[in-house]
Amino acid sequence: MTAVELATDNGQMVSENLTGSPLALRGVTVSYGSEPVVFSVDMTIEAGTMTAIIGPNGAGKSTLLKAALGIIKPLAGRVTTWGGSLDSQRARIAYVPQRASIDWDFPTQVRDVVMMGLFRELGLLRRVRAKHHAKVMECLTRVGMQDFADRQIGQLSGGQQQRVFLARALAQEADLYLLDEPFAGVDAATEAAIITVLKELRNEGKTVVAVHHDLSTVEDYFDRVFLINRRRMGEGSVEAAFTQDALHATYGGRLGDGLIARAG
Amino acid sequence: MGYEFVALSLPPIVIGMLAAMACALPGNFLLLRRQSLIGDAISHVVLPGIVVAFLITGVISTIPMMFGAAAAALVAVVLIEAIRRLGKVEPGAAMGVVFTAMFAGGVLLLEQSDTSGVHLDVEHALYGNLESLIWLDAVGWSSLADPAALSGLPPELLRMALALLVVAGLTWLFWRPLKLSTFDEGFARSVGLPTGLIGLGIVVMAALAAVAAFDAVGSIIVIAMFICPPAAARLMTNRLESQIGWSMVFACLSAIIGYVLAGYGPMWIGAAASVSAAGMIATVSGLILAITALFAPHRRA
Protein backbone atom coordinates (compact mmCIF):
# COMPACT_ATOMS: atom_id res chain seq x y z
CA MET A 1 0.00 0.00 0.00
CA THR A 2 1.42 3.34 -0.94
CA ALA A 3 1.32 6.47 1.08
CA VAL A 4 -1.23 8.05 -1.17
CA GLU A 5 -3.60 5.11 -0.81
CA LEU A 6 -3.13 5.17 2.94
CA ALA A 7 -4.07 8.81 3.08
CA THR A 8 -7.26 8.23 1.18
CA ASP A 9 -8.11 5.06 3.09
CA ASN A 10 -7.79 6.52 6.54
CA GLY A 11 -8.41 10.13 5.75
CA GLN A 12 -5.13 10.92 7.49
CA MET A 13 -2.40 13.23 6.36
CA VAL A 14 0.60 11.04 5.66
CA SER A 15 3.46 12.85 4.02
CA GLU A 16 5.33 9.65 3.26
CA ASN A 17 4.87 6.02 4.00
CA LEU A 18 6.43 5.45 7.40
CA THR A 19 4.09 2.77 8.65
CA GLY A 20 6.66 0.08 8.01
CA SER A 21 9.38 1.82 10.02
CA PRO A 22 9.55 0.98 13.73
CA LEU A 23 11.15 4.37 14.34
CA ALA A 24 11.24 7.43 12.15
CA LEU A 25 12.46 10.94 12.96
CA ARG A 26 11.64 13.93 10.79
CA GLY A 27 13.34 17.27 11.25
CA VAL A 28 14.14 16.58 14.89
CA THR A 29 16.00 19.44 16.56
CA VAL A 30 17.04 19.26 20.20
CA SER A 31 18.60 22.05 22.19
CA TYR A 32 19.82 22.20 25.78
CA GLY A 33 20.66 25.87 25.79
CA SER A 34 20.65 28.34 22.95
CA GLU A 35 22.61 26.12 20.59
CA PRO A 36 21.02 23.02 19.05
CA VAL A 37 22.69 19.73 20.02
CA VAL A 38 20.89 17.88 17.28
CA PHE A 39 19.84 19.82 14.23
CA SER A 40 16.98 18.92 11.94
CA VAL A 41 17.69 15.20 11.81
CA ASP A 42 15.80 12.73 9.66
CA MET A 43 16.24 9.07 10.50
CA THR A 44 14.37 6.01 9.28
CA ILE A 45 15.03 2.72 11.02
CA GLU A 46 14.21 -0.41 9.03
CA ALA A 47 12.34 -3.21 10.73
CA GLY A 48 14.28 -6.36 11.54
CA THR A 49 17.70 -4.73 11.27
CA MET A 50 20.51 -3.75 13.61
CA THR A 51 21.54 -0.13 13.26
CA ALA A 52 24.58 1.54 14.80
CA ILE A 53 24.36 5.25 15.53
CA ILE A 54 27.91 6.52 15.18
CA GLY A 55 29.59 9.87 15.40
CA PRO A 56 32.24 11.75 17.40
CA ASN A 57 31.90 12.69 21.07
CA GLY A 58 29.36 15.43 21.54
CA ALA A 59 27.75 14.69 18.19
CA GLY A 60 24.36 14.23 19.83
CA LYS A 61 24.07 10.43 19.60
CA SER A 62 22.61 9.88 23.07
CA THR A 63 20.49 13.00 22.72
CA LEU A 64 19.04 11.66 19.49
CA LEU A 65 18.14 8.40 21.23
CA LYS A 66 16.52 10.24 24.11
CA ALA A 67 14.55 12.41 21.73
CA ALA A 68 13.39 9.27 19.90
CA LEU A 69 12.11 7.92 23.23
CA GLY A 70 10.45 11.14 24.30
CA ILE A 71 12.84 11.42 27.26
CA ILE A 72 13.89 14.81 25.92
CA LYS A 73 11.31 16.92 24.20
CA PRO A 74 12.57 18.05 20.79
CA LEU A 75 12.43 21.74 19.98
CA ALA A 76 11.03 20.84 16.60
CA GLY A 77 10.35 17.78 14.51
CA ARG A 78 8.35 14.62 14.71
CA VAL A 79 8.96 11.10 16.00
CA THR A 80 6.78 8.25 14.81
CA THR A 81 6.89 4.60 15.80
CA TRP A 82 5.32 2.16 13.35
CA GLY A 83 3.69 5.20 11.82
CA GLY A 84 1.89 6.10 15.04
CA SER A 85 2.55 8.23 18.06
CA LEU A 86 5.22 7.21 20.55
CA ASP A 87 2.83 7.18 23.49
CA SER A 88 0.57 4.61 21.89
CA GLN A 89 3.49 2.26 21.22
CA ARG A 90 5.56 2.44 24.39
CA ALA A 91 4.83 -1.17 25.31
CA ARG A 92 6.68 -2.24 22.15
CA ILE A 93 9.86 -0.27 22.92
CA ALA A 94 12.70 -1.24 25.25
CA TYR A 95 15.47 1.11 26.34
CA VAL A 96 18.92 0.47 27.77
CA PRO A 97 20.31 3.75 29.14
CA GLN A 98 23.99 4.51 29.44
CA ARG A 99 25.40 2.61 32.39
CA ALA A 100 27.08 5.76 33.69
CA SER A 101 23.74 7.56 33.99
CA ILE A 102 22.75 5.43 36.99
CA ASP A 103 23.69 5.54 40.67
CA TRP A 104 24.78 1.93 41.13
CA ASP A 105 24.88 2.42 44.87
CA PHE A 106 21.10 2.37 44.83
CA PRO A 107 19.78 -0.13 47.40
CA THR A 108 18.35 -2.73 45.08
CA GLN A 109 19.02 -6.27 43.90
CA VAL A 110 19.68 -7.58 40.40
CA ARG A 111 16.29 -9.30 40.22
CA ASP A 112 14.52 -6.06 41.23
CA VAL A 113 16.15 -4.19 38.37
CA VAL A 114 15.04 -6.81 35.85
CA MET A 115 11.55 -6.77 37.40
CA MET A 116 11.39 -3.05 36.53
CA GLY A 117 11.21 -4.19 32.91
CA LEU A 118 7.79 -5.64 33.75
CA PHE A 119 6.48 -2.29 35.00
CA ARG A 120 4.03 -1.79 32.16
CA GLU A 121 2.59 -5.22 32.82
CA LEU A 122 2.50 -4.90 36.61
CA GLY A 123 1.30 -1.31 36.83
CA LEU A 124 0.87 0.27 40.23
CA LEU A 125 -0.43 -2.57 42.32
CA ARG A 126 -0.78 -5.81 40.37
CA ARG A 127 0.69 -8.70 42.33
CA VAL A 128 4.03 -10.13 41.33
CA ARG A 129 3.29 -13.76 40.52
CA ALA A 130 5.37 -16.87 39.95
CA LYS A 131 5.30 -16.29 36.18
CA HIS A 132 6.85 -12.83 36.67
CA HIS A 133 9.64 -14.25 38.81
CA ALA A 134 10.15 -16.96 36.19
CA LYS A 135 10.31 -14.33 33.45
CA VAL A 136 12.98 -12.41 35.39
CA MET A 137 15.10 -15.52 35.82
CA GLU A 138 14.66 -16.43 32.16
CA CYS A 139 15.94 -13.00 31.10
CA LEU A 140 18.86 -13.20 33.52
CA THR A 141 19.75 -16.64 32.21
CA ARG A 142 19.70 -15.34 28.66
CA VAL A 143 22.48 -12.87 29.51
CA GLY A 144 24.32 -15.36 31.75
CA MET A 145 23.55 -13.56 35.02
CA GLN A 146 21.23 -16.11 36.64
CA ASP A 147 23.67 -16.73 39.51
CA PHE A 148 23.70 -13.06 40.48
CA ALA A 149 19.96 -12.52 41.00
CA ASP A 150 20.27 -11.65 44.67
CA ARG A 151 23.37 -9.46 44.44
CA GLN A 152 23.21 -5.78 45.19
CA ILE A 153 23.79 -4.06 41.87
CA GLY A 154 26.78 -2.08 43.14
CA GLN A 155 28.69 -5.32 43.73
CA LEU A 156 28.73 -6.16 40.04
CA SER A 157 31.44 -5.40 37.50
CA GLY A 158 30.69 -2.92 34.74
CA GLY A 159 30.07 -5.69 32.26
CA GLN A 160 27.74 -7.51 34.64
CA GLN A 161 25.79 -4.30 35.24
CA GLN A 162 25.40 -3.85 31.50
CA ARG A 163 24.08 -7.39 31.16
CA VAL A 164 21.54 -6.77 33.91
CA PHE A 165 20.34 -3.73 31.99
CA LEU A 166 20.02 -5.85 28.86
CA ALA A 167 18.05 -8.44 30.86
CA ARG A 168 15.67 -5.70 31.97
CA ALA A 169 15.16 -4.69 28.34
CA LEU A 170 14.50 -8.35 27.43
CA ALA A 171 11.85 -8.49 30.16
CA GLN A 172 10.04 -5.68 28.35
CA GLU A 173 9.38 -8.11 25.46
CA ALA A 174 9.57 -5.27 23.00
CA ASP A 175 9.77 -5.13 19.21
CA LEU A 176 12.21 -2.24 19.14
CA TYR A 177 15.34 -2.10 21.33
CA LEU A 178 17.19 1.18 21.78
CA LEU A 179 20.57 0.89 23.51
CA ASP A 180 22.87 3.72 24.55
CA GLU A 181 26.50 2.57 24.31
CA PRO A 182 25.89 -1.02 25.41
CA PHE A 183 29.56 -1.92 24.89
CA ALA A 184 31.13 1.01 26.74
CA GLY A 185 33.57 -0.15 29.40
CA VAL A 186 32.60 -3.82 29.34
CA ASP A 187 34.85 -6.89 29.25
CA ALA A 188 35.24 -9.02 26.12
CA ALA A 189 33.03 -11.83 27.46
CA THR A 190 30.20 -9.38 28.13
CA GLU A 191 30.58 -7.80 24.72
CA ALA A 192 30.29 -11.24 23.11
CA ALA A 193 27.28 -12.13 25.28
CA ILE A 194 25.49 -8.89 24.47
CA ILE A 195 26.07 -9.06 20.73
CA THR A 196 24.86 -12.67 20.71
CA VAL A 197 21.61 -11.67 22.38
CA LEU A 198 21.14 -8.66 20.11
CA LYS A 199 21.66 -10.79 17.00
CA GLU A 200 19.17 -13.32 18.32
CA LEU A 201 16.66 -10.52 18.72
CA ARG A 202 17.29 -9.35 15.18
CA ASN A 203 16.88 -12.92 13.91
CA GLU A 204 13.53 -13.10 15.71
CA GLY A 205 12.45 -10.12 13.60
CA LYS A 206 13.01 -7.46 16.27
CA THR A 207 14.65 -4.15 15.52
CA VAL A 208 17.82 -3.07 17.33
CA VAL A 209 19.34 0.43 17.42
CA ALA A 210 22.51 1.08 19.40
CA VAL A 211 24.70 4.10 19.95
CA HIS A 212 28.12 2.67 19.19
CA HIS A 213 31.66 3.92 19.68
CA ASP A 214 33.97 1.27 18.37
CA LEU A 215 34.26 1.71 14.60
CA SER A 216 36.34 -1.47 14.28
CA THR A 217 33.37 -3.69 15.19
CA VAL A 218 30.64 -1.93 13.18
CA GLU A 219 30.88 -4.29 10.21
CA ASP A 220 30.82 -7.41 12.37
CA TYR A 221 27.96 -6.34 14.58
CA PHE A 222 25.56 -4.23 12.55
CA ASP A 223 23.57 -4.26 9.30
CA ARG A 224 23.06 -0.55 9.01
CA VAL A 225 24.67 2.67 10.21
CA PHE A 226 23.39 6.11 10.97
CA LEU A 227 26.13 8.76 10.98
CA ILE A 228 25.60 11.92 12.97
CA ASN A 229 27.55 14.98 13.89
CA ARG A 230 24.84 17.30 15.14
CA ARG A 231 23.32 16.86 11.68
CA ARG A 232 22.55 13.68 9.82
CA MET A 233 25.76 12.76 7.99
CA GLY A 234 24.63 9.55 6.34
CA GLU A 235 22.40 6.54 6.67
CA GLY A 236 22.14 3.17 5.03
CA SER A 237 23.48 -0.35 4.91
CA VAL A 238 26.99 -0.86 6.25
CA GLU A 239 28.29 -1.54 2.73
CA ALA A 240 26.77 1.62 1.29
CA ALA A 241 27.03 4.15 4.10
CA PHE A 242 30.00 3.09 6.26
CA THR A 243 32.62 4.47 3.90
CA GLN A 244 35.90 6.35 4.31
CA ASP A 245 34.38 9.48 2.84
CA ALA A 246 31.35 9.39 5.07
CA LEU A 247 33.52 8.86 8.17
CA HIS A 248 35.83 11.69 7.20
CA ALA A 249 32.84 13.94 6.78
CA THR A 250 31.36 12.85 10.09
CA TYR A 251 34.47 12.88 12.25
CA GLY A 252 36.34 15.64 10.47
CA GLY A 253 39.91 15.96 11.68
CA ARG A 254 39.05 14.53 15.06
CA LEU A 255 39.55 10.91 14.12
CA GLY A 256 42.91 9.36 13.38
CA ASP A 257 43.16 7.98 9.88
CA GLY A 258 44.22 4.67 11.37
CA LEU A 259 40.80 4.07 12.82
CA ILE A 260 39.13 5.01 9.60
CA ALA A 261 41.42 2.75 7.60
CA ARG A 262 40.47 -0.18 9.83
CA ALA A 263 36.82 0.69 9.50
CA GLY A 264 36.92 1.43 5.80
CA MET B 1 4.09 6.56 87.40
CA GLY B 2 1.22 5.17 85.27
CA TYR B 3 -0.99 8.23 85.40
CA GLU B 4 1.82 10.71 85.07
CA PHE B 5 3.39 8.89 82.15
CA VAL B 6 0.13 8.48 80.21
CA ALA B 7 -0.96 12.08 80.77
CA LEU B 8 2.34 13.90 80.41
CA SER B 9 4.79 11.77 78.41
CA LEU B 10 2.82 9.40 76.22
CA PRO B 11 1.14 12.02 73.95
CA PRO B 12 4.36 13.93 73.20
CA ILE B 13 6.24 10.67 72.56
CA VAL B 14 3.55 9.42 70.17
CA ILE B 15 3.35 12.79 68.39
CA GLY B 16 7.13 12.83 68.13
CA MET B 17 7.12 9.33 66.64
CA LEU B 18 4.41 10.20 64.13
CA ALA B 19 6.18 13.41 63.09
CA ALA B 20 9.52 11.63 62.82
CA MET B 21 8.08 8.86 60.65
CA ALA B 22 6.11 11.26 58.42
CA CYS B 23 9.30 13.22 57.68
CA ALA B 24 11.64 10.21 57.39
CA LEU B 25 9.44 8.45 54.83
CA PRO B 26 9.78 11.01 51.99
CA GLY B 27 13.29 11.67 53.33
CA ASN B 28 14.32 8.23 52.02
CA PHE B 29 13.57 9.27 48.46
CA LEU B 30 15.12 12.71 48.87
CA LEU B 31 18.29 10.99 50.14
CA LEU B 32 18.51 8.58 47.19
CA ARG B 33 17.86 11.43 44.76
CA ARG B 34 20.63 13.44 46.40
CA GLN B 35 18.07 16.10 47.29
CA SER B 36 18.24 15.86 51.07
CA LEU B 37 18.80 19.57 51.35
CA ILE B 38 15.38 20.13 49.82
CA GLY B 39 13.93 18.90 53.11
CA ASP B 40 16.05 21.44 54.90
CA ALA B 41 14.99 24.14 52.47
CA ILE B 42 11.29 23.31 52.76
CA SER B 43 11.30 23.56 56.52
CA HIS B 44 12.88 27.00 56.30
CA VAL B 45 10.80 28.39 53.48
CA VAL B 46 7.46 27.37 54.95
CA LEU B 47 7.84 29.56 58.03
CA PRO B 48 6.87 32.88 56.41
CA GLY B 49 4.09 31.08 54.53
CA ILE B 50 2.67 29.66 57.74
CA VAL B 51 2.89 33.02 59.49
CA VAL B 52 1.16 34.83 56.64
CA ALA B 53 -1.54 32.13 56.54
CA PHE B 54 -2.06 32.62 60.25
CA LEU B 55 -2.21 36.42 59.92
CA ILE B 56 -4.87 36.09 57.22
CA THR B 57 -7.04 33.39 58.81
CA GLY B 58 -6.32 34.02 62.48
CA VAL B 59 -6.23 30.31 63.28
CA ILE B 60 -3.64 27.56 63.24
CA SER B 61 -5.13 25.00 60.93
CA THR B 62 -3.37 22.63 58.57
CA ILE B 63 -5.14 23.50 55.31
CA PRO B 64 -4.53 27.27 55.24
CA MET B 65 -1.02 26.61 56.51
CA MET B 66 -0.49 24.17 53.63
CA PHE B 67 -1.57 26.84 51.14
CA GLY B 68 0.64 29.42 52.82
CA ALA B 69 3.58 27.06 52.70
CA ALA B 70 2.93 26.25 49.05
CA ALA B 71 2.79 29.95 48.18
CA ALA B 72 6.03 30.52 50.07
CA ALA B 73 7.67 27.66 48.16
CA LEU B 74 6.55 29.25 44.91
CA VAL B 75 7.99 32.61 45.92
CA ALA B 76 11.22 30.81 46.85
CA VAL B 77 11.49 29.16 43.43
CA VAL B 78 10.91 32.48 41.63
CA LEU B 79 13.43 34.26 43.85
CA ILE B 80 16.06 31.57 43.31
CA GLU B 81 15.67 31.79 39.55
CA ALA B 82 15.78 35.59 39.66
CA ILE B 83 18.94 35.67 41.78
CA ARG B 84 20.58 33.03 39.65
CA ARG B 85 19.86 34.83 36.39
CA LEU B 86 20.17 38.49 37.42
CA GLY B 87 23.07 38.05 39.81
CA LYS B 88 24.76 35.23 37.84
CA VAL B 89 25.15 33.37 41.13
CA GLU B 90 25.56 29.59 41.18
CA PRO B 91 22.33 27.70 41.99
CA GLY B 92 23.50 26.32 45.34
CA ALA B 93 24.38 29.77 46.62
CA ALA B 94 21.14 31.23 45.29
CA MET B 95 19.17 28.56 47.16
CA GLY B 96 21.09 29.11 50.36
CA VAL B 97 20.47 32.84 50.24
CA VAL B 98 16.75 32.51 49.55
CA PHE B 99 16.07 29.88 52.21
CA THR B 100 17.82 31.66 55.03
CA ALA B 101 16.44 35.06 53.97
CA MET B 102 12.89 33.73 53.88
CA PHE B 103 13.26 32.00 57.22
CA ALA B 104 14.67 35.22 58.70
CA GLY B 105 11.77 37.14 57.15
CA GLY B 106 9.38 34.69 58.77
CA VAL B 107 11.06 35.23 62.13
CA LEU B 108 10.69 39.03 61.82
CA LEU B 109 7.08 38.68 60.75
CA LEU B 110 6.36 36.44 63.73
CA GLU B 111 7.99 38.83 66.13
CA GLN B 112 6.02 41.83 64.86
CA SER B 113 2.63 40.17 64.67
CA ASP B 114 0.32 39.46 67.56
CA THR B 115 0.47 35.73 68.00
CA SER B 116 0.35 35.76 71.78
CA GLY B 117 -2.93 33.86 71.85
CA VAL B 118 -1.61 30.85 69.97
CA HIS B 119 1.39 28.56 69.92
CA LEU B 120 3.16 30.42 67.18
CA ASP B 121 6.37 32.23 67.96
CA VAL B 122 10.03 32.04 67.11
CA GLU B 123 10.81 29.39 69.70
CA HIS B 124 7.97 27.16 68.53
CA ALA B 125 9.15 27.56 64.97
CA LEU B 126 12.53 26.18 65.98
CA TYR B 127 11.79 23.53 68.56
CA GLY B 128 8.03 23.20 68.77
CA ASN B 129 6.09 22.68 71.93
CA LEU B 130 6.26 18.96 72.38
CA GLU B 131 6.41 19.12 76.18
CA SER B 132 3.14 21.05 76.42
CA LEU B 133 1.13 18.56 74.37
CA ILE B 134 -0.28 16.85 77.43
CA TRP B 135 -3.44 14.79 77.90
CA LEU B 136 -5.37 16.25 80.83
CA ASP B 137 -8.29 13.82 80.51
CA ALA B 138 -6.12 10.80 81.16
CA VAL B 139 -6.36 9.03 84.49
CA GLY B 140 -4.04 6.16 83.63
CA TRP B 141 -3.51 3.45 81.01
CA SER B 142 -7.24 2.65 81.13
CA SER B 143 -7.95 6.00 79.51
CA LEU B 144 -6.66 4.59 76.22
CA ALA B 145 -9.91 2.59 76.06
CA ASP B 146 -12.15 5.46 77.18
CA PRO B 147 -13.69 7.38 74.23
CA ALA B 148 -14.47 10.43 76.35
CA ALA B 149 -10.90 10.70 77.55
CA LEU B 150 -9.53 9.97 74.07
CA SER B 151 -11.40 12.96 72.64
CA GLY B 152 -9.33 15.13 74.95
CA LEU B 153 -6.07 14.11 73.28
CA PRO B 154 -4.06 17.01 71.86
CA PRO B 155 -5.33 17.81 68.32
CA GLU B 156 -1.73 17.69 67.09
CA LEU B 157 -1.81 13.93 67.57
CA LEU B 158 -4.68 13.39 65.14
CA ARG B 159 -3.23 15.89 62.68
CA MET B 160 0.17 14.19 62.71
CA ALA B 161 -1.43 10.75 62.40
CA LEU B 162 -3.41 11.92 59.38
CA ALA B 163 -0.31 13.41 57.77
CA LEU B 164 1.57 10.16 58.28
CA LEU B 165 -1.37 8.20 56.88
CA VAL B 166 -1.46 10.36 53.74
CA VAL B 167 2.32 10.18 53.20
CA ALA B 168 2.42 6.42 53.85
CA GLY B 169 -0.65 5.81 51.68
CA LEU B 170 0.82 7.73 48.74
CA THR B 171 4.15 5.93 49.13
CA TRP B 172 2.39 2.56 49.14
CA LEU B 173 0.18 3.38 46.16
CA PHE B 174 2.95 4.83 44.02
CA TRP B 175 5.73 2.55 45.29
CA ARG B 176 6.74 1.18 41.89
CA PRO B 177 6.87 4.54 40.05
CA LEU B 178 8.69 6.11 43.01
CA LYS B 179 11.32 3.38 43.09
CA LEU B 180 11.69 3.18 39.33
CA SER B 181 12.00 6.91 38.70
CA THR B 182 14.36 7.40 41.64
CA PHE B 183 16.64 4.61 40.41
CA ASP B 184 16.59 5.27 36.67
CA GLU B 185 14.82 8.40 35.51
CA GLY B 186 15.58 7.90 31.82
CA PHE B 187 14.18 4.38 31.79
CA ALA B 188 11.17 5.52 33.81
CA ARG B 189 10.40 8.14 31.19
CA SER B 190 10.87 5.62 28.39
CA VAL B 191 8.07 3.46 29.84
CA GLY B 192 5.85 6.54 29.97
CA LEU B 193 6.12 7.60 33.62
CA PRO B 194 5.73 11.33 34.31
CA THR B 195 9.02 11.64 36.17
CA GLY B 196 8.79 15.40 36.64
CA LEU B 197 5.43 14.99 38.34
CA ILE B 198 6.78 12.18 40.52
CA GLY B 199 9.72 14.33 41.62
CA LEU B 200 7.32 17.15 42.43
CA GLY B 201 5.09 14.70 44.30
CA ILE B 202 7.97 13.71 46.58
CA VAL B 203 8.66 17.36 47.40
CA VAL B 204 4.96 17.95 48.07
CA MET B 205 4.85 14.92 50.39
CA ALA B 206 7.87 16.28 52.24
CA ALA B 207 6.21 19.70 52.47
CA LEU B 208 3.01 18.15 53.82
CA ALA B 209 4.95 16.31 56.51
CA ALA B 210 6.97 19.42 57.34
CA VAL B 211 3.93 21.69 57.67
CA ALA B 212 1.94 19.18 59.73
CA ALA B 213 4.90 18.56 62.03
CA PHE B 214 5.91 22.19 62.19
CA ASP B 215 3.97 23.64 65.10
CA ALA B 216 4.09 20.47 67.20
CA VAL B 217 7.73 19.57 66.96
CA GLY B 218 9.45 22.53 65.27
CA SER B 219 11.85 22.73 62.36
CA ILE B 220 14.87 21.21 64.13
CA ILE B 221 13.20 17.80 64.29
CA VAL B 222 11.78 18.15 60.80
CA ILE B 223 15.21 18.80 59.29
CA ALA B 224 16.87 16.05 61.31
CA MET B 225 14.20 13.49 60.45
CA PHE B 226 14.34 14.17 56.72
CA ILE B 227 17.97 13.16 56.70
CA CYS B 228 19.25 11.20 59.72
CA PRO B 229 16.95 8.13 59.85
CA PRO B 230 17.08 7.49 56.07
CA ALA B 231 20.86 8.00 55.98
CA ALA B 232 21.36 5.62 58.92
CA ALA B 233 18.91 3.13 57.38
CA ARG B 234 20.80 3.14 54.07
CA LEU B 235 23.85 1.81 55.94
CA MET B 236 21.85 -1.08 57.42
CA THR B 237 20.68 -2.72 54.21
CA ASN B 238 21.00 -2.98 50.45
CA ARG B 239 17.28 -3.24 49.80
CA LEU B 240 15.06 -0.18 49.44
CA GLU B 241 12.14 -1.92 51.15
CA SER B 242 14.28 -2.71 54.22
CA GLN B 243 15.80 0.76 54.14
CA ILE B 244 12.33 2.26 54.53
CA GLY B 245 11.62 -0.13 57.41
CA TRP B 246 14.88 0.69 59.18
CA SER B 247 14.28 4.42 58.73
CA MET B 248 10.90 4.05 60.47
CA VAL B 249 12.56 2.14 63.32
CA PHE B 250 15.27 4.80 63.70
CA ALA B 251 12.70 7.63 63.55
CA CYS B 252 10.68 6.03 66.35
CA LEU B 253 13.78 5.23 68.40
CA SER B 254 14.95 8.83 68.09
CA ALA B 255 11.58 10.14 69.28
CA ILE B 256 11.30 7.75 72.23
CA ILE B 257 14.90 7.84 73.43
CA GLY B 258 15.17 11.57 72.77
CA TYR B 259 12.04 12.43 74.68
CA VAL B 260 12.85 10.20 77.63
CA LEU B 261 16.44 11.50 77.82
CA ALA B 262 15.25 15.11 77.64
CA GLY B 263 12.56 14.64 80.28
CA TYR B 264 14.27 12.29 82.71
CA GLY B 265 17.94 12.36 81.74
CA PRO B 266 18.90 15.51 83.65
CA MET B 267 17.12 14.12 86.73
CA TRP B 268 19.20 10.95 86.55
CA ILE B 269 22.42 12.92 86.72
CA GLY B 270 21.08 15.08 89.52
CA ALA B 271 20.27 18.21 87.52
CA ALA B 272 16.97 19.90 88.20
CA ALA B 273 15.57 21.09 84.88
CA SER B 274 14.75 19.07 81.82
CA VAL B 275 16.19 19.94 78.39
CA SER B 276 14.46 20.60 75.08
CA ALA B 277 12.82 17.44 73.80
CA ALA B 278 13.08 18.56 70.17
CA GLY B 279 16.78 19.26 70.56
CA MET B 280 17.37 15.91 72.25
CA ILE B 281 15.35 13.94 69.67
CA ALA B 282 17.32 15.52 66.82
CA THR B 283 20.56 14.84 68.70
CA VAL B 284 19.66 11.18 69.23
CA SER B 285 18.88 10.80 65.51
CA GLY B 286 22.33 12.21 64.78
CA LEU B 287 23.92 9.80 67.26
CA ILE B 288 22.12 6.87 65.62
CA LEU B 289 23.55 7.98 62.28
CA ALA B 290 27.02 8.23 63.84
CA ILE B 291 26.73 4.71 65.29
CA THR B 292 25.54 3.21 62.01
CA ALA B 293 28.30 5.05 60.16
CA LEU B 294 30.81 3.26 62.39
CA PHE B 295 29.26 -0.18 62.81
CA ALA B 296 26.45 -0.81 60.30
CA PRO B 297 26.78 -3.80 57.96
CA HIS B 298 26.50 -1.95 54.66
CA ARG B 299 28.86 0.95 55.09
CA ARG B 300 30.42 1.85 51.81
CA ALA B 301 34.15 1.60 51.44
Automatic annotation (TrEMBL), chain A:
Which family is this protein grouped under?
Answer: Belongs to the ABC transporter superfamily.
- InterPro entries with a match to the protein in the record: AAA+_ATPase, ABC_transporter-like_ATP-bd, ABC_transporter-like_CS, AztA-like, Metal_Ion_Import_ABC, P-loop_NTPase
Q: Which Pfam families match?
A: ABC_tran
Species this protein is from: Pelagimonas varians
Q: Which residues form the ABC transporter domain?
A: 23-255
GO molecular function terms here? Answer: ATP binding; ATP hydrolysis activity
The biological processes this protein is annotated with in GO are:
zinc ion transport
Q: Which domain of life is it from?
A: Bacteria
Keywords recorded for this protein, A-Z: ATP-binding, Hydrolase, Ion transport, Nucleotide-binding, Transport, Zinc, Zinc transport
Listed name of the protein: High-affinity zinc uptake system ATP-binding protein ZnuC
The EC number of this protein is: 3.6.3.-
The record, for SUPFAM superfamilies, names: P-loop containing nucleoside triphosphate hydrolases
From TrEMBL, chain B:
The family assignment reads: Belongs to the ABC-3 integral membrane protein family.
**How does this chain sit within the bilayer?**
Multi-pass membrane protein
* The UniProt record lists the keyword Endoplasmic reticulum: no
Q: Which GO terms describe its cellular component?
A: ATP-binding cassette (ABC) transporter complex
- UniProt-annotated location(s): Cell membrane
- Residue ranges crossing the lipid bilayer per the database entry: 6-25, 37-56, 62-80, 92-110, 157-175, 187-210, 216-237, 244-262, 268-296
Recorded hits in InterPro entries, A to Z, give: ABC_BtuC-like, ABC_TroCD
What name does this protein carry? Answer: Manganese transport system membrane protein MntB
Superkingdom as given in the UniProt entry: Bacteria
Question: Where mainly located?
Answer: membrane
Entry-linked Pfam families: ABC-3
Q: Does the keyword Metal-binding apply?
A: no
Gene (UniProt): mntB_1
Q: What keywords were assigned to this record? A: Cell membrane, Membrane, Transmembrane, Transmembrane helix, Transport
Give the organism, scientific name: Pelagimonas varians
